[in-house]
Design a protein that fits this description.
This protein is an alpha+beta fold. The chain has one domain: Lipoprotein localisation LolA/LolB/LppX (outer membrane lipoprotein receptor (LolB), chain A, Clam). The chain has a 12-stranded mixed beta sheet with strand order 7-8-9-10-11-1-2-3-4-5-6-12. The protein is globular, with a radius of gyration of 25 Å.
Length: 222
């Protein structure tokens, strides 16, 4: 008797699951689809929404319009949103670029030169404005999907400002992390960055993005 009572409800339970399955799929599938948009624009949006800071090593390649390589360099990139970043070039020559929130400092130890420019002017229509800026990306760039290439999802950004030195910027993402950046300037020169050893939202000291010109260097205001 006990065995009979145990097995009788099972067919009814299976029927109930069959009736509920279409409803469950209708509810769950749209939500799943909404979270699997791996397009470049979607990953850019999630990337910017998810970071307040960034640290990464980089490799940079600069190529002329005819494709010949003009320069290759390496270093470390630091970002603290909004409006603070730092590029420390280590190879082949040491150089440093620091944005302190008001000005951008360009330091060349070998030439013993420092140039400084107001940040609002120096960064207009540049990738730095995109990554470190506080305004919505759409305000400064026209955004379009650039498809998939090299295992990455790409987004293209065209500066709205006619003063920008760049014609277009392309960013390559994987798993909502920035992996590549490609820039083409108005002279056809292309600059490519690869980012690796990425750390999201690291902690920086209060003075990390401050720059004090060394003594005995030439200082140029631009």
């Amino acid at each position: 008797m006990a065995t009979g009572r145990c097995w009788h409800p099972l067919p009814r339970r299976r029927d109930m699951i069959r009736r509920l399955l279409p409803l469950l799929l209708a509810v769950l599938l749209p939500a799943a689809a909404a979270t699997t948009d791996d397009s470049g624009p979607a990953q850019l949006k999630r990337f910017l929404a998810g970071i307040s800071g960034l640290q990464a090593r980089f490799e940079q390649q600069v190529a002329n319009q005819d494709g010949t390589q003009a320069l290759r360099s390496r270093g470390t990139f630091f970002l603290q949103r909004p409006d603070h970043f730092r590029w420390d070039y280590s190879d082949p020559e040491r150089q440093q670029i620091v944005a302190d929130g008001r000005q951008v400092w360009f330091y060349d130890p070998d030439l013993e030169q420092v140039s400084v420019q107001f940040q609002s002017k120096a960064l207009r229509g540049t990738p730095a404005q995109l990554l470190a800026g506080r305004d919505p990306v759409e305000n400064s760039f026209e955004i379009s999907d650039a498809g998939h290439r090299d295992g990455l999802a790409w987004v293209q950004l065209v500066p709205r400002s006619s003063d920008s030195q760049f014609e277009r910027i392309r960013l390559g993402f994987a798993d909502d992390q920035l992996r590549r950046m490609e820039m083409t300037d108005k002279f056809g020169q292309r600059t490519r960055f690869r980012f690796f050893d990425i750390q999201a939202n690291p902690r920086f000291s209060s003075t990390f993005f401050q720059f004090e010109p060394p003594e005995d260097v030439d200082l140029y205001n631009q």
